[in-house]
Structure formats: structure tokens, C-alpha cells
Amino acid sequence: MNFPVLSAITFIPLLGSLIVFFLPKDKKNWIRWTSTILSLVPLGLSLYIYAIVRENPGEMQFQEVYSWIPSANIYYRMGVDGLSAIMLVLTALLSTLCYYYSIYTIEKRVKEYYFLFLLLQVGMSGVFVSLDFIFFYVFWEIGLVPMYLLIGVWGGKNRIYASIKFFLYTLTGSVAMLLAIIAVYLTTGTFNILEAAAAQPFAENFAMAAAAFWAFFIAFAIKVPVFPFHTWLPDAHTEAPTTGSVILAGVLLKLGAYGLIRIVLPLFPKPFAFYSYNVPIIPILAVISIVYGALVCMAQWDLKRLIAYSSVSHMGYVTLGISAAVAGSALNGGEDAVSSAILALNGASLQLFTHGIITGGLFFLVGMIYDRAHTRMLKDYGGLGNKVPYYYGIMMVTGFASLGLPGLAGFWSEFFVFRGTFGVLPVFAMIGVVGIVFTAAYILWKIIQHIFLGEFDQDKWDEATHHAELTDMATFEKVTMWPLVILMVLVGLYPTVVVGLLNGVSTVLLSN
Amino acid sequence: MQTLLFLLPQLILFLAAVLVFGIDLVGSNKKKWLPYLALGGALASLAAALYLAMGAALPTEPFLGGMLAIDSFALFFQFFAALVAGVVIISSLGYIRDCTPYLAEFYSLLLLASISITLVAAATDLIMIYVAFELLSITSYILTGYLRDDPKSSEAAVKYFLYGAMASAAMLYGMSLLYGTTGSTNLSSVAGALAGAEASLQWVIFPAIVLLLVGFGFKIAAVPFHQWSPDAYEGAPTPVTAFLSVGPKAAGFAVLMRVLLVALPGFHTDWMALLSALSMMTMTLGNLVAISQKNIKRMLAYSSIAQAGYMLIGVASWDLWQSGSVFDGISGVMFYLLVYLFANLGAFSAVIAFERATGSNKIEDYAGLMQRSPVLASTMIVFLFSLVGIPGTGGFIGKFFIFGAAIRAEFYALVIVAIVTTVISAFYYLNVARYMFFESYSNEETHIKPSLALKIALVVNCVLVLVLGLYAQPFFQLVEKSLEFLHTL
């Protein structure tokens, strides 16, 4: 039997959490370093998987199947294709960076913190490798609990409200999904995601298919989040501790989009295409997310809340890309439509990765400045460019990547999404593109200008921050940011490292 | 002789009860070890039930004049009752010693109540059901009012008794209607007499079912027969509350399933409709009222009402032809009961530990519990998550099977109510979690150290809740085996 790589990636963090559980509470450094070093193992293994899956990204590989609850036909079933591999790398990378960053920033209840964070990583990785509905669902929900506690214990002022709101929103979506999963099982007789997709549940019965489709869609849309299900996000992101926001934006939002691509798209192509093209509810919601999210950013003075809303806007591109892909593949518009569809889906899945590293980076940067100034209000800042040049530089790169400057990672995903969408849903593409203009506006005007440009006014700074000391980035902060910056440039210059894998998956998904 | 062997679990419990009671009478000094004798009795009974389940050939026919059936279904509940008794005894050790000098009677009554649960589950005759039910009720009343100097405890017992007497009377009336129609009190004879005459007898059987459900609904605390439970739960000594929330409820479900499935399968459309209505009311009211509770015992009382509502879904969506598959409804109920046993007794063990250390049952006093006692807070949160039904805990698998049955039966209204109330329930369960983990505590007396017995109870329950959630297969097989009696219908 081969070495179960996927189980190792998923469950080594669990092992880590057990080790942390048995370490004494006051050995803080032991706990911190054990978790951080141990997390290099899943990172290394996921890079290994990336290297292997590259060869043949459209196929499910490294499959592991064990029976789990045979009476209920439930299996422990794992596998990866190109999309999962990319998401695994993203999850492992951001988790490791978070453990490392927390060594220097988390002093309160360290043991619980690392225990929960490791558990969270189990949930996230598990979702990306599960090929059985119940298995998927278990991981999906397991991630919810630690995140709830992370926000609630280590969060900001309004953390209690934000944590319960996050939990209830997600739970609502989840239970709806559970019902749909059971309904799919009762028609297809299997919990295997791939088999269920091949069986096309409710193919004859559009009403039932649409009901199941909406149940899944809403569950995932809450997580993405798609307007109007996004209201939990600004609270959760703003109140969560820095690393919590990084993981929320970097990985947890991707779980929703991943679910749309992995489950909803192959299982319910007909209703999905119907509501993307004939009755275009989904592209409408996506475009609203893009434009509305960006407009809120323009009016937002709280830096962290601004980044949170920028996620709503950026994840709107993902939803738009997916719905364009579904509509394009169902159109019978010949090769043009299909290639547009594939392009749109490539863009959407690439956006998952690029948004993960860019917004993850932005939240780290917000956390760093907040740790110094203890304020997130943009009006309290000004003229920091000369004072913290290193920080300024990193923020410029990350900000430009976020607004889609060619040469950096964010450009390609947005370009693919809109190029693909123009071929299928041109009206929505045209409205959506407006979002890019707003994005440039809020990044340049709100973030860069308000924080860094102008004269530094010492009196204003002292008053706003109670004489906080303003130092440039510390070594650990540089170490945290560099891997992300390198990836932004690398994917910006040579997107094939990621798109190569995603294209294989998109082709397989849309050719059926 | 053979008969006695089949009754071994009950006989052991009975012997232990008599011994605990008798030894206490002889001699004058207080016998601190009597609780351990009771615990030994519960464990021995558990072992006997296990022995019967593993090896012995069970009787195929009801015996003692058709009064009792020792089938795998009855064994499941013998097992269940002995477990409940064991866990409750462990968690009550210090608590009862501190609040009353009368130890022996308490444990002896607890064992008698456990016997009555096994008898209720094994009874196949209406008379036997009634007698066993009354034994359970009377022991429960006394246990509820056990702290006779505490007015709340006495009030709780009186309320419980008054409601219980009414419910028993209604149930007995229902039984008399069944007897009057069929001329028999034996469940299978009743079924035989009713077979083929469903349409012509509906006018009398329907009210009989309603009346029976009053009695059963009282025991499982289903709305609208639940009014006794919040007061009884709050006033009773906390270990008794733990017992009441699990033991009699399981007995109620056992008899509900046996009577409806064995005696009245022909009227399933009637009782399914009634149970669906009961279930919806129970889930809605239990969960909604639980939100505003400030006292954790009352909160858990409403929670246990709500949990009964979820289990009722399973019975309501029973399908004979699906019997043996995971979504047949009844299997889900049995599995759910098992999970509920550990999760609820675990939660109450935590409440007992907290009450003993601080003297308080207010939810707001749980603030900062994670720092004050990590064991208590971290096991409690697992129990709470199981009650919500979060994957990884047994509560999820239970809800999964039950919701699945309802979807298979196409009871969509029931399903919608169930998921909406599940989300609502997360709110009040997590409210406790919020105090334990998020709020800081102010008072000086910081650390809480639960006794060793309570720690054992907490950790064992917690591990079992997780095992049920992560490795459900063996438990599911146990449930499947316990339902073999359905195949002979």
C-alpha cells in the first residue's frame, strides 16, 4: 500500500493539536514552535502533491478509500486533482505563516490558541480532499467550531456578537446542505461525490433539482459570501484576530467557492445554467457583490473593515466566473462558448488562489500596523511613507496585486474571469468591470494615500495612538510577508505554475 | 430457571437495591460505601445484559404469561438503564452525601427506577406496561422530592406527581378503550384483533391512540405534556434531574415504539400524523423557550424537551419496508437515544461539578470557566456541540439518520421545522459556551477542582460522545440488532 499522503496532510495537524493538548500550559514556546515546525510537514507534502498532480491535473489522484459507516454507505474517501492541490498548498502555506506570525503576537491563552488553530487546519484541508459527501460535510463543519472560538476569545471589542453571527450564518447554510445531501443520496444511492455527479440526480425532475441546487448554493454562497448573504463577513473579519482574518479570507471563503466548483457545478448543471443564463439570478448577485462591495470600501474608514468588504467584491469575481462557465458550457454555442467557459472557470479558480495570498497578506499588514498604532481608522494615519519605508513597499506591492496591476498575481485571475465572461454574459462582464475601477480607487486613494502619503504629523499621531512608537517591520513580519510577495510576483509573471493545474480541472468539469 | 436467567439484569439490580436498603437498616453507623455497592449492582447488571446479548439464546416468545419479552430491543434498554444508573451514581457521589444524610434510600430508589425502565421496555402487555410505568413514576416522584427541607424540591415533586397522575389516568383510559375493542391486553393479540378492521374501528382506536400518547408524551416530555418538566428539573437534586432527563425519556420512547409498532401498525397514518404534530410543537417550543433561560438546569430542561422533539421525528417517519436501513426512522431514534444518554448525562455531570464548587446554577456564573477549570469547560463544550448536532460528535450522526428518515418519508414541513430549530438551538447552547470561553470572571475564588468521580464521569462521557460521532458503525450495528423484533411483525 502506498503512503497515504492525503491522510497525512489532513491529520498531521490533528496530531499536532493532540501534542499541544498534552503539553503543559506554561511551556508557551514549546507549544508555539512544535506547532509551527510540525506544520511544515503538511506544507512539504502538499508541495509534493502539487509536483505530482501537475503531470495530469484533470484526474483524481492519490485516492484513499476506507469504509467508515458501511451500514449507511458512508466512506472515508479522499482524492486530489489540480484544483484541490492548489487549495491544499494555499491552506498549508497560510496556516504555517499564521503559526509563525502568532509566535510573536499571541500571548493570551497560547495553548488553546494553537490547539484550535491546528484543528481548524484539519477541517480546511479535509474539505479540499474529501470525495464523500458526509466526509466533506464533517470537515466543513469541524472548521466552524475552532474559528468560532478563535474569533470569540482572541477577537476585538465586538467579538462575541461577531462570533455567534458567523456561527449561526454558516450553520444555517450547512443544515440546508445536509438536507440536500440526503436528498441526493436517496435518489442516487451514493454519497460518493464523483458517482453522484455522474448519476446526475433529479435530471428528470427540474423542480427537485432546483430545490437541491438552491440548498447547496445557499450553503456555499453564505461562505463565499455572495450578496445578500455577506453580512456576517465584515463583522467576523473585523473582530477576528489578525491570523483569524487571514485564514477566514485566505481559506474559509474559498471553501464556499470550492464547493460550488466541486459539487454544485457537476451535480446540478441544468439548474445552475438556468439560473445563470435564462433567469440570471446568480450573475446578478455576483455583480452586485462586486460593485456594492467596492463602493462600501470607498466609504469605509476602518482599514480592516475596508479589506473585509474588498473580499466581498473580489469573491464576486469568482461567483461571476463560475456562473459564466456554467452558462457557457450549457449554451451549445460551439467551441467559442466552451473556450470562454473554460477561461472563466480558470479565472475563478485562479482568483481563489490569488485572492488567498493577496488578501491574506493584506490582513497580515493591517495586523502589523494595528499592533503598533492600536487604531484602524484611516484618518488617524498619514505620512507614514517616510517613517516605515519597508512596510510601505510591501503594502504597495500587495495593494497593487489586489487592484489587478499587470505583472502581479491579481491581474490574471481578473483578466481570465472577464475575458471568459464577455464571451457568455457580456452585459454582466461590462458592469462587473466597473468594480475594477472602484478597486483601484479605494486601494490608491483610501489605503495608500491616507496611510502613507502627505506630511507626517507627530502631534496628530500621538493623539490618535497615545504616543505609540512607530517602528518599521520587524524580522518576523518580513519573514511572514515575503513568501506571499514572492508568490504574487511569481504568479504575476508566470501564471502557468497555477493555471496549468486549474485548466486541466476546468476542462474535465466543463466537458461533461 | 431459564426464565430467571433471562431476568438476570433486573434481578441483579433488584438485589442490589434490596441490599443497599437492608444493610442501611441494620446497625447504626453511616455506611459511606453503600453508594459503591449500588454502583457495583449497576455494573453487574450491565455485564449481565451484555452476557445475554452476546451468548444466550433469547426466548422467541414473550413469557411470564405474555407479560414480558426479553428480546434484543428489551436488552438494549436494559443496557441503557444500567448505564444511566451507573453514570448517575458516579456523578452523584459527593452531591448527595452533602445534602442529605439518607444515602441508602436514594440509591436504592435509583436502582428501582432503573429496573422499571427495563420493565417498561420489555413489557408486551398493556397491564404490564401500566404497572412498570407507575413504578417508574412513583420512584421518580420520590427522588424529585428527595430534599424534603428544600421547598423547591418538594414543589417540584408535587407538580410532577399531579401531572403524572393525570397523564397515567389518561393513558389507562386509552388502554381500556383498546381492551374494550379487542378483548385483549396483549400487544400482539391487540394487533391481530385489529387487523383488517382499521376503517371500521378508527372511531374508537383514534381516541385511544391520542390518550395513550398523553401518557407516553408525559414521560418523554413532549409538548403539550411537558409543563411539569422545567419545574421538576430545576427543583430536583441535580443528579436526579440528570436521571429524569434521560431514563424516563428513554422508557417513554421504548414503550411508544413498541406499542405503536407492535399493536397499532395498521393505524400508522393516524399516529404518524399525531406524532408529527407533537414533534413540531415540541421542537419549536422547547428551543424557543430555552433561549431566555438564565438557569442552566432549566435551560437543559427545555433543551431535553427539544431533543425529544427531534427523536419524535424518527418515530413519525417510520417505514416498515425500510426496516434495517439507516433511514428507517426507528434506528435513528435508538442511535439518538444512545448519544443523548452520554451527551446529556455529561452535561449534567458538569452542572453538578459546577454547582458543588460554586453553589450556583446561573448561566452567567459560568463566565471564564475555561480558565477556572479546563476539564469542565472543554468537556462541557463537547456535550453542547453534540446536543446541537455538530459533526465529530455523536449528535450529528443521530440527527443525520433522523433527518434522513424524514426526507425519505417526504415530511418536508417536519424537516424544515427541524433545521430551523436546530439553528435556534445553536444559539442558546453556544450562549453557555460563550460564557465559559469568552467572558472573563471577576470573583476571587478562581479554580474549580471537580472530584475524581466527576472527572471520570465527564471524560468517559466526552470520549463516548466523540466515539459515537467518529466511529458510529459498531453502535449502529447494535441498534440494528436491537430492532430485530421488527422483522417478525
Architecture overview:
- The complex is a heterodimer of chains A (512) and B (489).
- With 512 residues, chain A is mostly helical.
- Chain A has a domain at 284-512.
- Chain A has 22 helices and 2 strands.
- In chain A, strands 1-2 form a two-stranded antiparallel ribbon.
- In chain A, strand 1 and strand 2 (74-80) form a beta hairpin.
- In chain A, helix 14 packs antiparallel against helix 15.
- The relative contact order of chain A is 0.10.
- Chain B is mainly α and 489 residues long.
- Chain B has a domain at 281-489.
- Chain B contains 20 helices and no strands.
- Chain B has helices at 2-6, 8-25, 34-54, 72-99, 103-122, 126-144, 151-182, 187-194, 198-220, 228-235, 238-263, 268-291, 296-316, 330-358, 369-372, 374-388, 394-408, 412-437, 452-470, 473-482.
- In chain B, helix 6 (126-144) packs antiparallel against helix 7, helix 7 (151-182) packs across helix 10 and helix 12 (268-291) runs antiparallel to helix 13.
- Classes of the chains: A mainly alpha (512), B mainly alpha (489).
- Chains A and B meet through helix 6, helix 7 and helix 8 of A and helix 17, helix 18 and helix 20 of B.
Would you tell me the overall average pLDDT of chain B?
A: 88
Report Rg of chain A.
Answer: 22 Å
N to C succession of SSEs of chain B: HHHHHHHHHHHHHHHHHHHH
Helix-and-strand structural type of chain A: mainly alpha
- The sequence of SSEs of chain A as H and E is HHHEEHHHHHHHHHHHHHHHHHHH
Oligomer designation: heterodimer
Number of helices of chain A: 22
Uncertain segments of chain A = none
In the sheet with the most strands of chain A, the strands line up as: 1-2
Q: Biggest interface, which chains?
A: A-B, 35 and 33 residues
Helix content of chain A: over 70%
Main sheet: strands, sense, barrel of chain A: 2 strands, antiparallel
Whole-number mean pLDDT of chain A = 89
Largest sheet of chain B: none
**Number of helices, counting only DSSP H or I runs of 4 residues or more of chain B:** 20
Distance between the termini of chain B: 28 Å
